Amino acid sequence: MYTFLYKEHWWSLSSVSMVARSMARVPNNNVRPTHFRWGPQELGQEIKAFLSGVDPALGTKLTIKEHARSAIVLLRNLPPARSAVLEHLCNVFDEYVGNYLVELESDMGHRHTMPNLDDVVQEVQNVLSDFVRMNPKAWAPVVSAWSIDLMGKLSSSYAGRHGVPHASSLNELLQLWMSCKATRTLMDIYTQCLSSMISSCPDACVDALLDTSVQHSPHFDWVVAHIGSSFPNTIISRVLSCGLKDFCAHGATTVDMLFPSAADRRIPKIASVVGILGHLAPRHSESIKQELLKMFHNSLGPARDQLQKATVPFLLQLAVMSPMLLSTISAELVDSLKPAVLNQLHQHFTTLPREDVENMVSLMVHLICQMASGAYRILQFLVNTAMPASVITPPGLAVHDAVREACDRIIQLLLLNLQKLVYNRSQPNLSDPAPRPVPFLDELKGHIRDLCVETLRLERKRFLWQHQLLGLLSVYWSPSCATDALFYMLTLAKSQEELSLAAQLYAVLMSSMKDLLPATIKMCVCQIHAGTISEQHMVQLFNNLALIMQSERQEHEGAAAMSSQVATVVSSYLYDFGQLLLHSNTEVSEAAALLLSVCPMPKAILPAHLMVIVRAAVHLFFSALHRKCETATSHTGKLLLRLCSISSASMKAILQQLVEGALHRGNNGLFGGSTEPWTAEEASLEDSNKTSLLDINQRFGTAVNFSGSIWAVFHAGIIGRGLKPPHVDNALSYEEVVQNVQHFMSLLMRCCSGSKCQADLGQPQPHMVVVNPEAAKTVAVVLVENVCPDVTNSELAWPPEEHTRNTVERDIHIFKRFRESPLLFELMHFVALGRPALCYCSVLLRGLLATLMGHWEGFRHNDTTSSPWHLQASCALVACMGEGYLLPPVLSNMHEIFDRLTPFEVHLLLLSLWEYMKDNSPLPQKFTFHAEKGLFFRDFARDGEIGKYVCPLHSVLHKNIDKLGLLSGRFQT
Questions:
Q1: pLDDT tens per residue across span 785-840
Q2: pLDDT tens, residue by residue, 364-379
Q3: How far lies 106's CA from each of 111, 112, 113, 487, 896, in Å?
Q4: H-run or E-run covering 718
Q5: Quick one: which of 599, 600, 601, 597 has its CA closest to 635?
Q6: Which of 313, 342, 527, 805 is a plausible cystine mate for 533, CB 3.0–4.6 Å?
Q7: CB of 839 within 8 A of CB of 796?
Q8: Which residues are 497's β-sheet partners?
Q9: What's the pLDDT at 685?
Q10: C-alpha angle 429/433/436, rounded to 5°?
């Protein structure tokens, strides 16, 4: 059993003794009613019994129940004995609680062996309730202080008992004490006192609550939780009011605010205020928020007393001691800081000493750093106030210049403080190995993109502040925030100046984050594959990466390092970016081509990946020609050139894809060719059915290929369905066709020539250009495969003239392809430059020469200019054979006089070429390599006398000496 003594109550006990000596003892029974009015003699006997603890009549010691009833009699009938009686009743309640806990700890109940004090407790409640109800002004402060203090002492005294839950288990603790009749009665008594004082003066009850909370927290928290839930609005407002009075009375300083432990010593009630509000916050946060805001705005009124002046420091002190209260009020407080309120707040601080103002600013910076919610809103408020985005401020929204300067000062101190926290955090001490969190930066992690957007606006100081904050966030949340920040900067930057901010950010982070750029580029690739990045941002990202790699003159070392590392990392993702060359959005595909055209090629790449990129690049090249997009054509051409540098296999693959693409019927019109299908199977009839000539011939038996004869039947259409679709003229102008041919041939020439040809794309090439023989051979093989798929490369030897009777259909097919695709002559001339690659086009040369010979033989006009295409084809063929060193110089120049001869004379000259080729087949073995010039040459002297082949030429010259006399010198052997 615990006994509680009050020194201030000794005067009451002396008074009772004096009253007892002056009163006569009246005999009494063991059971004495307490609710009747007693006379002086009876009351005197009760005083003696209460003081001695012995029954005056029987001389026996009073039981605890009897002693308690005697105390109740005095409480009801003798007001001077109030303090002594209440002190004694503390022992009764203590006895009850002790017995209650013993019963809980026992395995089985033993209540019958202990005194039952339920009726005594109930009688105490009845007496005190009557007093409070009849005279609340006199009794409520006293009774409330007694009950709340007793609950605090009981909670602390029995906190260590086995059956009492820990103070952190608030719900279990509340359930335990509210199940006990004694403590529940005390709670009811205090609740009645508080209810009776709410309308008049509740401060006395609340002061008692705060004083007890200071002494007995955290074991007293269950009382605070229950009372606060019963009277939330009253408790919140009065607790804040009492806390403010105590704060003001103790003369708190900013030192107390910065060091909560000092505040606890100098201002005892401040911790209780924080604790009570903390208990009420989960269910009554809105009420707490409204009361705090109300206090703040009331403190800015015109009539200012000492409490109003202390309100803002008091609220700051609460925020320092309770992050929960800070997060509760921060968002709404920022929203309420309108220009008028800011100006009033400025006037409030102007009355304070400079030192206090500086300390107050430091305190605000400390609070902002500890803010766990609404951090981005507060940052934007500070930035917008210190440096508005708009220079012109609407009327009524102007903020005093001193307010702007103060916000500027706060931002600078905030960044400095954050920098200290971040970099000190990265070096933990041995005594504190776990780095301390920075709530402000924790909350800003979800606003990386918003910070990047604001930074890239380049608005005066604003972007400098936020750029510095991005760097701190990147170090604090390394590496996740660093990659996010750099990714958004690279994606959202739209100018060279904005892009430089990304380089500056990388320069700050590169020393502490080794693999930052690889992680960022990997993130870009993942975002592209996941489809979470828009097409517009994808284009901007590719353009920015290309711009970084293209920058030759870097402003600082960090930008130079970024440029080289971006190039290295992008080249490792060549396949991923290469797939975007086929993107449906042409802007994306062109941006991807630009990016890949400036990045270095990897030393090795999987063949399957290489073929995907090559096909995509070639497709984009022809697509750009169709769209007449010069930039895309240039970027794709540069990309193909870089791909050629990987290996000889890549060069051959590119050449094959380029030639096949150029000869495709869909691209034939780009180079002046016909868009008419080349075969009957490809011809689309009116009913969209495709007809096979072979099927028709086999079905009707009317078309037979007579081997060894000149007869053959060709399909011209189906009876009843009309002729084949008409020929569609090329829609491009002559200038556009020439430009396309130049673009294509220039690209082809550079791919084959490598570093030996440095002419720009799209520019005319010189007559003599060094072409890689292997590359030219690749083009020759592709030409043969596309024009005449049924012929193998082994057919290089030139057959007799009679053999043409068996190849009429093939020769006509070759002739038609050359006529429908003028680019074939350009390609043949290109192959001729890479000696001896033209030998592998022997079948094409034979078919075209045989067809031209037949044409001139049967042509009935007197001059060759009447058949311009055949004349041009004949000249081009002879010039090509001469360029490829298949003909000796004297024969290779004969095409210069074709336009001045008759068709029969041209036939004779072409026939002499046929004879020469028959006797001197175009074989690669006849060429020898000249090491000094790095070229293959052919010694025609080894082929024997060529006089018999030149005789027809000389005869034609002699016959037309009047027209060709001046040219005869070019045909001397």
A1: 988 887 766 677 887 777 777 888 888 999 999 998 899 999 999 999 888 889 99
A2: 898 888 887 888 989 9
A3: 10, 13, 13, 67, 127
A4: strand 717-718
A5: 597
A6: 527
A7: yes
A8: none
A9: 38
A10: 95
Which residue from 51, 63, 52, 67 is spatially nearest to 12, judged by alpha carbons?
Answer: 51
- Asked if 970 and 891 count as a contact pair (C-beta separation under 8 A), the reply is no
Residue 240 sits at φ, ψ, to 5 deg, of -65, -40
Report which of 471, 463, 468, 553 is spatially closest to residue 510, judged by C-alpha positions.
Answer: 471
CA-based nearest residue to 752, from 829, 825, 814: 829
Cα gap 525→233, rounded to integer Å:
56
H-type helices in 337-400, by residue range? 339-350, 354-369, 375-386
Omega within 30 of 0 (cis) for the link into 836: yes
Q: Is the dihedral of CA 50, 56, 61, 63 positive or negative?
A: negative
Both tokens of residue 277? 């509000």
| pLDDT surpassing 60 at residue 911 | yes
Q: Which residues are CB-neighbours of 913 under 8 A, at least 6 positions away?
A: 849, 878, 881, 887, 891, 894, 949
CB atoms near residue 67 (< 10 Å): 21
End-to-end Cα spacing for the chain: 141
Longest CA–CA separation in the chain, Å: 176
Question: Which residue, chain included where needed, has tokens 């804040």?
Answer: 240
Amino acid (1-letter code) at residue 666 = G
Instruction: Say if residue 427's pLDDT is above 70.
Output: no
Phi, psi of 482 (to 5 degrees): -65, -45
Query: Which tens digit of pLDDT belongs to each residue from 688-744?
Result: 345 565 665 555 444 444 444 444 555 555 566 666 555 555 578 889 899 999 999
DSSP string, 628-696: T-HHHHHHHHHHHHHHHTT-HHHHHHHHHHHHHHHHSTTTGGGGT---S-SSGGG---TTS----HHHH
The mean pLDDT value for 478-492 works out to: 91
pLDDT of residue 314: 85
Question: Per the structure block, which two tokens stand in for 47?
Answer: 């005083």
Q: How confident is the model at residue 871 (pLDDT cuts 50, 70, 90)?
A: very high
Residue with tokens 């921060």, as numbered in its chain: 330
Using DSSP, state whether 409 is helix, strand or coil.
Answer: helix
Q: Find, among 944, 949, 968, 950, the residue nearest to 958 by Cα.
A: 968
Residue 564: other Cβ atoms inside 10 A: 14
**DSSP per-residue string spanning 198-234:** TTT-THHHHHHHHHHHHHHTTTTHHHHHHHHHHSHHH
Buried b (16+ CB within 10 A) or exposed e, 888-897: bebbbbbbeb
- Two tokens, residue 60: 């026996």
Q: Which uninterrupted H or E stretch holds 881?
A: helix 868-883
**Percent of residues, the chain, with pLDDT higher than 70:** 81
- The whole-angstrom distance between residue 267's C-alpha and the CA centroid of its chain comes to 48
CA distance 339 to 346: 10
Q: Residue 198: beta bridge partners?
A: none
Predicted local confidence at residue 767, as pLDDT: 44
The CA-atom distances, in angstroms, between 879 and each of 264, 777, 915, 957 are 104, 19, 17, 19
3-state SS class at 936: strand
Q: What angle do CA 298, 304, 306 make, to 5 degrees?
A: 100
pLDDT of residue 720: 63
CA-wise closest residue to 349 among 270, 407, 415: 407
| Whether the Cβ atoms of residue 570 and residue 577 lie closer than 8 Å to each other | yes
